[in-house]
């Protein structure tokens, strides 16, 4: 399609008349397959899918491209994600991949963009859903992070997901312990490590929303360990354990790396239930025992 040379947007707001009803996208209309992830936002290269909710009114969208206009208050939801443009062209599109506006949002050309999406009234009857979409060029001075994949990992099985990037030395020690085994323990071989800055600051709910599922809604990964700021701030590495099994609403708890090996093995073999481990959590919210 023809590439627009329109200038930067400075925040234009108006109701959109969708050509095809459904969700929104910030994308190159010539891009390939859409993201397969779930949740409010899901991204691939040249493509961001935005769940517009179930409201039956045309949405009102404010767009900013270029410099970050600053924080905005008063929204029901705010999420951000990294999108990598390989073509240097991104447009706001409807669910039929037709541009709703022809302005090019990839104002700095090819490269990474932080897309911050604010939303209110996505699923409220008799109200227009409101969105504020900020498309902010990312750092182009060094190695760029890969965009978040449609799913966190194609491989099934337990995941270890890094969400904090302020303590690189601690993360290196954690990885070494996983690969070689915590002191006196075997390596945790059955776990897949996800180390991508695109997931910086993600909550447990945001991570679970990006885990793939089969046609019967069964998750590719039923168990997730999260290396967040608290986990990397302690020598014990108290990882956040999250149960992703359908129809189970167990609350997450923290488990030390030393105990995580037996935890992962027993959960993989279905020898124990997630809730059985949760009852052993100590007063500080961390599980430290081991059993095989």
Task: Explain what this protein looks like in three dimensions.
The protein folds into 2 domains: 10-137, Competence, DNA-entry nuclease inhibitor, ComJ (Substrate Binding Domain Of DNAk, Chain A, domain 1, Sandwich); 159-287, Rossmann fold, CATH 3.40.50. By secondary structure, it is an alpha/beta fold. The strands form 3 sheets. Strands 11-10-12-13-14-15 form a 6-stranded mixed sheet. It has a 5-stranded mixed sheet with strand order 1-5-9-8-6, with no helix packed on it. A 4-stranded antiparallel sheet has the order 3-4-2-7, with no helix packed on it. It has helices at residues 168-180, 204-208, 229-232, 257-268, 274-278; strands spanning 10-15, 24-27, 41-44, 47-50, 60-65, 77-85, 91-93, 111-120, 130-137, 159-162, 192-194, 223-227, 239-243, 253-255, 286-287.
Q: What is the mean pLDDT? A: 80
Q: Note the beta-strand portion.
A: 25-35%
Largest sheet: 6 strands, mixed
> How are helices and strands ordered from N to C?
EEEEEEEEEEHEHEHEEHHE
- Order of strands across the biggest sheet? 11-10-12-13-14-15
Unreliable stretches: 1-15
Architecture of the largest domain, CATH level 2?
A: 3-Layer(aba) Sandwich
SS elements, strand count: 15
Radius of gyration: 21 Å
CATH superfamily of the largest domain: Anticodon-binding domain
Shape: elongated
Helix content: 10-25%
Helix segment tally: 5
Number of domains: 2
**CA-to-CA gap between the ends?**
59 Å
CATH secondary-structure class of the largest domain: Alpha Beta
